[in-house]
Amino acid sequence: MTGLRKIALVTLALTVPTACTTVVLEAPPTGQIGAQLSVERFLSAANQRDVRAMGRIFGTADGAAMDTGSTFGCAFKKIGSWFGGQSCVKKQDVEIRMDAIASILQHQDYLITGEARVAGRTVPATRILVDLTTPDGAKATDVPFVVVQADDGRWMVEQVDLQAVMAAR
To answer: 110 and 128 in contact (C-beta within 8 Å)?
Structure first.
C-alpha cells in the first residue's frame, strides 16, 4: 500500500501544476497584419519604382488596378461603357499612374504609427497611418493609407493622401 500511495502522490504532484496552468497567446487579427503588409509592400515597390508590383497592390474591393481584364472581357466592358458603364483601363495607363504615385512616395524611411477600422464601408477597410521621411529629410507625419480587402482576400491600397506627403516637402 505504501508503494501505491507514493506512485499516486507523485502522479498527483506532476499533473496538478499542469492542469492548473493556462497559457493565453493573443495574436493580432490577420486582417490587420495583411493591411499593414500591403502598405509596406506598396511603399517598398514605390521606392524601387516597380510600377507593376504597385499596380498589383493598388486597387479596390473588386481587385488590383493592374488586373484590367482579358481582351474578350474588355470588349464587353467597352460596349457597356456606351450605355453608362466603365471601359477597361489599359495597363499602360495604370503604369503611368503608379509611376506618378511612386515619384511622390519616394522615401528614406517610414514608420507605421497607427491604424483604425474605416466605418461605414461594405467591405473590410483599414486606415493605416504612416510617417515618411523623404529623400531630402523632410517628414510627412500620419499620412493615411486606406486599405480594403478584395473579394479574393487580398488587401489592396485603395487611397493614399499624396497631398500630405507633398505638403511636407
So the answer is: no
Q: Is residue 15 part of a domain?
A: no
If we measure between CA atoms, which residue out of 145, 111, 140, 142 comes closest to residue 128? 145
Q: How many residues does the chain have?
A: 169
Q: Tell whether 67 is covered by a domain.
A: yes
SS3 sequence of the chain: CHHHHHHHHHHHHHHHHHHHCCCCCCCCCHHHHHHHHHHHHHHHHHHCCCHHHHHHHEEECCEECCCCCCHHHHHHHHHHHCCCCCCCCCHHHHHHHHHHHHHHHCCCEEEEEEEEECCCCCCCEEEEEEEEECCCCCEEEEEEEEEEECCCCCEEEEEECHHHHHHCC
31-82: per-residue pLDDT in tens?
Answer: 467 999 999 999 999 999 999 999 999 999 988 988 866 555 555 555 555 6
CATH number, domain of 68, equals 3.10.450
Q: What is the pLDDT of residue 169?
A: 83
Structural domain including 105 reads 28-167
CB 10 within 8 A of CB 26: no
For the chain, what is the domain count?
Answer: 1
Compute the CA torsion angle 37, 40, 41, 45 (nearest 10 deg): 170
